[in-house]
Every structure is written in C-alpha cells, then in structure tokens.
Amino acid sequence: MNILLTGSSGQLGTELYSLLLPLGLVTLVDRSAGLHDTIQQDLTDLHQFEILLNRLRPDLIVNTAAYTAVDQAEKDHETAFRLNAELPACIARWCKTNQRKLLHYSTDYVFDGVGQHAYRETDPTGPINVYGDSKLAGELAIKTSGCKHIILRTSWVYSTHGNNFLLTMLRLAKQRPELGVVSDQTGCPTWARNLARASLQVLQAVQNDNGLEDGWATHSGTYHYCDATITTWYDFARVIFAKAVELSILNSAPVLNAIASKDFPQLAIRPMYSVLDTQTVQDRFGVFPPGLDQSLSACLQDYHA
C-alpha cells in the first residue's frame, strides 16, 4: 500500500511510523520536520493539501494531525476547527472521490463527562468545550462523506515526546517540591505506543477480512481504544512519580496534593468522567488493551534511556 501519515511528528505519528512500514510505502507530512524524511506543509492550507493528495494518491491516509491545545482552542476557535474538522472533511471527500481509505483519531472529549458508565460508541455525544466540538465535527464530516473509514476514539494519551501529562509532571517535579493535581476527573491514560499497536492490529484485521475492499466495507465505523486502567489525574501522577524515583529519573517525588477541578481554573471545561468502553474493538479486532503499570514502566524506561 501507499500510505500517507499526517501529523507524523506528534505523539501518535512518531509511534505509528515504524509499525506502518511493513504494510507498504509510508509518506510523512507535518508542519515541522520529524526524525525521518517529512514533507513539511501547513495542514491548515487545505487547497495545498489537496494538491498534495492528488500528487501522492495514497491508498490509505492515517490522519493523526490535530489541534490538541484544549485551553488554547477556546481562544483560537478558527484554527481548532480548521485542523480538527475541516482537514478531516477534506481528506474524507478526497477518499470518497478516489475510493481510498481513511484511519482517523478522535477523543473522549466528544462526550460531556457526566456519565456513570464507560462510554460506548453508540452513546450520545455532547462536547463541553471547543476542542470537543471541533473533534466531533470532524467525526461527523467523515461519516457523512460516505468514504470507507475507521475512527478510533482514545483518551489521555502520553508518551516520551510532545506535550502531555507525563512529561509535564516530570518537568514540574524537577522544579517544585510540592504539586497540586486534580483528583476528581476520571479517565484511562493511554500510551501512544499501545494506541499505535492497536491501530496496526485493526488495519491488519480489516485487510485480512475477505480482502481489503470487503474488509473496509464491513468494518467502517467508529471504535473506542484506550488502555485498560481507570484512574484520576492525581493517582496517575502518584504512579508516575513512584516509578520515576524507582528508575532514578527523579531523586525524590514531590509532595502531591489532591485538588478539585473547581480549584484549578482552566479556560476549557474538562469532562469529569471520560472512560471509554473498548469491548467492541476487543470483540471485532482482537485488540486487548494493557494496563497502566506495565505500559508506564516501559514508557519511562524509554524516557530514561
């Protein structure tokens, strides 16, 4: 296959690159240069991006490009919607016209976070901030385009690069002896590498199901993938510090104080409960999410190395 990977310098794109190589030729595109040969392009310029699509004519587009600065999105509505809604819409239209395939990523933030059970793919959406609104608009644009697609919703992604909670906690722990972390928001921290591996399993399962074309026709839709452990930001931070000390990444852990969301003002309201139900992706594709303990240890070992 000829595969185009957008957002290739981000957390997920970086992890996906090597995993996608066995499937075919992988071309990378992002606004900044990555570790490998990358076509540098402003992905908010949809006209130029469509010219690129017509030149490369990929069989599969893996779209990890996104505007993920949740608070900044409240002030930069236009750019958030350009990357999270209009870009996926552009890709989906091109895929429909040219009979190509799309793997796209979305978020737990499409839900309002007031649920009492893990959100299923069929549960009503109701985003409560601009970021969630823009990501849901991207999902809807893909679905209504009629292209063959898979959308993977995920949550609380962390890795050894980019901007994420893990790296923020490690940085602050080296600067401050005491930290306050929100303890009343619940979700599932997901290692970017696990999400990349799950993506590969899904792609392989679709390809192997009566051939590529039939497999995509059968399985097109939205699925949830996140790692298995349900926790809070506070407890996630506590485990990060314990493991970081164990691996000598930190000399000591900072004093950790649990605080309420209302006492930690941010521009964007966050969902209080954003656990995703992964049963469908398990049943259909044989993807079984690992837990936090093993995944975080492996991630921190990479960080330490």
Explain what you see.
The protein is of the alpha/beta class and 305 residues long. It has a domain at 2-160 and 191-228 and 274-289: NAD(P)-binding Rossmann-like Domain (Rossmann fold, 3-Layer(aba) Sandwich). The protein is 43% helix and 18% strand. The chain has eleven helices and 13 strands. It has helices spanning 11-20, 46-56, 70-73, 77-98, 130-145, 165-173, 192-208, 212-219, 233-246, 279-285, 292-304, and strands at residues 2-6, 25-30, 38-40, 60-63, 101-107, 148-154, 157-158, 178-182, 186-187, 190-191, 221-224, 231-232, 255-259. The protein has a seven-stranded parallel β-sheet, with helices on both faces. A two-stranded parallel sheet has the order 7-10. Helix 5 links the parallel strand 5 (101-107) and strand 6 (148-154). It starts with a strand and ends with a helix. The mean pLDDT is 95.
Summarize the helices and strands and which ones pair or pack.
Blueprint: E1 2-6, H1 11-20, E2 25-30, E3 38-40, H2 46-56, E4 60-63, H3 70-73, H4 77-98, E5 101-107, H5 130-145, E6 148-154, E7 157-158, H6 165-173, E8 178-182, E9 186-187, E10 190-191, H7 192-208, H8 212-219, E11 221-224, E12 231-232, H9 233-246, E13 255-259, H10 279-285, H11 292-304
Parallel strand pairs: 1-2, 1-4, 2-3, 4-5, 5-6, 6-11, 7-10, 8-13
Antiparallel strand pairs: 9-12
